[in-house]
User: Fold this.
Amino acid sequence: MNQFTISGSPHVHANESTRRIMIDVLIALMPALLVAIYYFGWYALRLTIVSVGTCVLAEWLIQKFLIKGPVTINDCSAAVTGLLLAFNVPANLPVWMVVVGGIVAIGVAKMPFGGLGKNPFNPALVGRVFMLVSFPAAMTTWPQAQPIFQNGFFADAVTGPTPLGILKEEGLTNNPELLDMVLGNRGGAFGEVCAIALLIGAIYLICRRVIEIFTPLSILLTVFIFAGICHLIDPTTYIAPVYHLVYGGLILGAFYMATDMVTSPMTIRGKLLFGFGIGAITVIIRLWGAYPEGVSFAILIMNAFTPLINKAFKPYRFGVVKPSKKQ
Amino acid sequence: MNPIKTFPKGGVHPEENKLSADKPIQNFPMPKQIIVPLGQCLGAPADPIVQKGDHVLTGQLIGTAKGFVSANVHSPATGTVTKIDVVMDHTGYYKPAVFIDVDDQEQWIEGYIDTDELLTEIKLAPNEIINKIKECGIVGMGGATFPTHVKLMIPEGKKAEYIIINAAECEPYLTCDNRLLLEKTKEFLMGVKILMTAVNAPKGIIGIECNKKGAIELLDKTINENRELYKDIEVQPLKTKYPQGGEKQIIKAITGREVPSGKLPIETGCVVVNVASTFAIYEAVQKNKPLIERIVTVTGKSVKNPGNYRVRFGTPANLLIEAVGGLPENITNVINGGPMMGKAVSVTDFPCIKGTSGILLMTTNEAQDRHQTNCIRCGRCAIACPMGLQPFLLNKLSKLNMFDETESNHIMDCIECGSCEFTCPANIPLLDYIRYGKAKTGAIIRSRNQK
Amino acid sequence: MNNILIISLLVLGILGGVLAVILYFVAQKFKVEENPLIDEVAECLPGANCGGCGFAGCRALAEACVKSAAEKGNIDGLACPGTNMQTVADILHLTIAAAEPKIAVVRCNGSCANSPAKVHYEGADICAFANTLYAGEGGCSKGCLGLGDCTKKCPFDALHINKETGLPEVDEKKCVGCGACAKACPRGIIELRPRGKNDRRVYVCCSNTDKGALVIKNCNVGCIGCQKCVKTCPFEAIEMRGNLAYIDPAKCKSCRKCEEVCPRGTIHAVNFPPRKPKAEEPVNQEVTNENKANA
Assistant:
C-alpha cells in the first residue's frame, strides 16, 4: 500500500531551485570566460580553475570539518563565487594569491555568517578587495589583451595600464578606441574586458528571470548621468560618459555582482536606490578617489545598506485605501 | 466580449493541467452506505437531530446549524441511520458523522419539485430567498465552505452594487465549475438573477478565466439570446493567473476596488459567490432542493480516466477513485481540492463533503522534490504575493515566535494562496510557517480584543 | 610642542571634570528608588525567565515577592518552579510551607514501534502547525506529533526528542517543572506531576480520550478505557476522564497494582526498584526496566 504524504498546501511547486539559479549564472558567465581565454589564453583558464576549485574546496572543508554539518557545495554557489572572483583579477596574477582570495571569500565573507543566503557582503567582492589591499602591486598590474592566435595559448603576458589607470595617471591625453573597449581588446581584469560577452550573458539571465533589470539599469544610468554632468562642466578633465560605462568592471559589477540576490534589496524601489548608490559612489571614486576603479567598493558599501533599504522600502500592500479614492 | 482584466499585483502561473475539461458530468451511482460528516462548513459542526434506526428521506434535515457561522446538513439519500459515530474525514481527524444505509428506492422529501425545466419566475422576496438559502445549508463550494447566507446578509448602511460570480477556477486540474457552466448554463444564470434579487444588486458580473473559452462563449450567447431574462448580467473574461479566484483579487480585477485590509468584501459593494453555490441556490430557491450533491473532479496526471462526477455528499472518495481507474501506482499525495489550496488527506475513504471540489492524485514527481535549502533572499515570494506582503520575513518572524512583528507586518492580510511557496527556489515551506504565525497572531489579537 | 601638550591636557581635564559633575547631578535627579531586597531575591532565582511563575521574567517575580512580603507579610501564591522558595523566604525573613517539586511528564508512548506511521509528514517542524493538518503519522489524534515544540520551549535544556522513539524525553535532573513545555504542546500531552518520593511516580502514559476501538486501531499501548485499573486501585486514586484513566497524584500511594493489571501496558511506574522476576508478566517487566534505563 502507498504511504501518503501529508504536507501543507501548495502541493505543486515551480520548477526552480537554488542550484538551477546558480547554474544559470555560470552559464551566463561562459561567453565572457571564452573571450577571456581568447585574449589571455592559459593564464585566464588557469586562474579560473584555481579560483573555482579553491572556493568549492574551502566550502567543502569548512562544512565537513569545521561546522560538521551538511555539505551543500552541490548548490554551485561556491563555484559562482569562484568564477566571479577570478573574473576580477588580472590574468597574470600569481596563482597563490587567488587561492588566498578564494579562501577569504568563502572562509571570511560567507561561511562565518551561516553560508549561502546569510552573508551581508558579496563574497567574491570581499575576496577581491582583500587581494587588492593586500597585494596592491600585483592586483593593479594589468596584462594587455592579445588574441591567442597571435602569440599562442601559453604566451607570456605583456603588462600595460588599463584605460581607467591611464585616465587617473595621465589625464585625458589619448582617448582609447571605443570599439576595442566593447570587444575587450584592452587591459584589465580578464573577466571584465569584453562588455559584449557580459551583456549577452546578462540578457540570458534576464530572460531566465534570474536577475531583474532594475539594479543594473539604475547603476548604468546613474554613472552615465553623473559622469555626463561632469563631462559637460569640464570636457578637458572628464572623459565622455559612454567610456565610463564600458571601462573597468562596471558591466560585470552591475549585472553580476550588484544583482547578487543575497546582498541586494528585494523591492523595485529598493533596487533603484541601491543602484543609484552604487553608481554615485563608483563615479566619485573613479573621478576623485585614490583608486582608478571603484565598482567593488561601491557595491560593498551599498551591500551594507541593503538591510536598511529592505526595511525602508516594503512592497505596496493590497488593501491600503487611499483616503481620496474612497470618496 | 469585454476586454480581459486581471489583478495587478503578484500571482503565479502554475501548469494548468485541466485534464478533465472535456469530460461531461456523470451521475455517480449511489453507494450502499454513505457517511455524512456533520461538520461540512467553515464554522461549528451541525447538531445531529436523527438517531440510530431512524428512516430518513433524501433531502431531510439531519443536522441543524449551531451558531452564526454554521450550516444545516441534509440527508443525501433515502435510508436508515445505522449509527452516529466518528469518521476520519478530509481534515485528517476523526469527526462525528451520520452513517446511513441506503435504500434501493429513492424517496424525496415533500416540497421538492422534480423537474428538468428551467423555472424562471422568482416567487420569493429577498429575505425569503436568504432564509431559503440558510435552510438548505448552502455554503461557498469553492473549498472554503463559508455559509452563503451569512455573506448575503448585507450589514446596515452598506449597499451591494455588484454580485460577482467567481468562475475563475484558477486552481490547476479542477474543472467542475467549467463543466457546470457548460451544462447548466441557464440554471446557473437564473441563480445569478436570484442572487441579485436577494441582495438587491443592480448588476451581476461573472468573472471567468479566459482559459475557459467555451464557457465564456456559451454564457455570452445565452445572455444575448435572452436579453430580457438575463439583463444586467455580464461576463467578464479574466487573465489566466493564480490566484485570480481569490475573493479580494477578483473584486480588484473586475471593479478596480480594493477590499481594505482587515475589512469584508461588502466594503467595496461586492458580494462574491462561487459557481457551484450559485447553481445550488437556483435549485434550492426554485426547486426546493437542499444542498446534497455537488460536482467533483477526480483527476491526476497518472489517473487513467479523469472525470467530473455528480456526487452525493457522504460518498467515500475511494469509490470515486475506483471509478476513474483505481489508485495508480506511486501515488503519494491525495488531495481534497486543488493543488494550490487543497488539503492532503491521510486516507482514501474520506467522505466527500460540500467543499470537495476535486480529488487530486499526485505522484512524488509531480509534488516536486522538496529539498530545502537556505533562503537566498531572492525576493521572488514578495513579487509573487498578491497581497503585497513579504513572505520571507513573515516566515522568519513566525519561526522565531515574534508575533508582535508578524502583526505589524500584516500577517493577517495573508490569504494563504500559496504563491510564495510555489515560487520559492529554495523550497522553503513558507506557507506552513506563515499559517502557524497567522494562527498565533490571530489568537493574540482576539484575546487582546476581548479584554 | 609643550604648549600643545599642556593645552590638550587642560582642555580634556576640565571637560572631564565638568561632565563628571553633570553626570552626578543627573544621576541624583533621575535616581530610581528600589528596594535592595529585589536584587537579592532575583539573585537566587534561576534567571532563565521561563515564565513558569506566571510573571514576565525572574526579576518581575522578585519584585512581586518583595512587594507581597511588605504588604501582606507572606509570599503565598508566588512560586518559582525552579527554586526552593525557602531561600527566597529566608531573604525576606518569612516562613513558608514547602511546595512539592514537580516534573514534566509526557503522557504518550506512541513511538514509531507502538504506533507505526501510516502517512508521512513533510513540512515545517512545528507541532502547532502539523496539528492543524492531520491526526499524526500514527493516526492517533491525541498523540505526540514528535516535532518538538516542547523541546524548543524548554529553557533548561531538559527535553529532547529521542530519535528512536520519536518522542520527547524529560531529563529528570534538569527539569524544574516550570511548565513551559506543557504550555507549548498543542495537544496538552505534557502534564506537570509531583516528583513523588524518591522520584517514584505512577502515571497513565496516554492522552487519548477516544473510544477503545479507535485507540486500538492506531496504537498498541494506548488507554482503551477498560477501567481495570479503576477497579483495582485500593485508594480510589484513579478516575475516568472520557475514555482515559487518570491517576490523581494526591491520592496515589504508588502501590503499582494498576500497572500490573493494565492490559495495554499504558500505566508506567518509574524509578521503582525492579520487581522480583515473575514469569507471567514479561510485558510490564520490560516497561519498568526500560523506564528505569531511560531515567
Remarks:
- The interface with chain C takes residues 3-8 of chain A (CB under 8 Å).
- Chain A has one domain: 18-312.
- The first helix of chain A runs from residue 18 to 40.
